[in-house]
Amino acid sequence: MHEYSIVAxxxxxxxxxxxARGASVVHRLHVRVxxxxxxxIDLLETAYETFSPTTVCAGATLxxxxxxxxxxxxxxxxxxxAGEGLRCPDCGxxxxxxxxxxxxxxxxxxxxx
Length: 113
Description:
CATH topology: hypothetical protein PF0899 fold
CATH class: Alpha Beta
Number of domains: 1
Structural class: alpha+beta
Number of helices: 2
Helix content: 25-40%
Strand content: 25-35%
Order of helices and strands: HEHEEEEE
CATH architecture: 2-Layer Sandwich
Number of strands: 6
Radius of gyration: 18 Å
Shape: elongated
């Protein structure tokens, strides 16, 4: 379960931000997780519940935003519709993933003195 290593990295980043800002309490973390990121949301939440109580994130809630995969044409910027194929119907250029593979710490809600 690589979700535990993701949570460990997430908590390390939060600890860095807390120290840098002199925060006293972390209330909430907002994370964006793409459907093609390889992360199981349920396992990520379980890993966070298991790992966070002994960290600066103790008591902080984890909010996960699921991000749908989207593909687009890099040449004409047309979004490719699911089931349409991975080639642009206008210019024939192969499509590229434009979102859906990310794992992003979007926001930390914390108290700063």
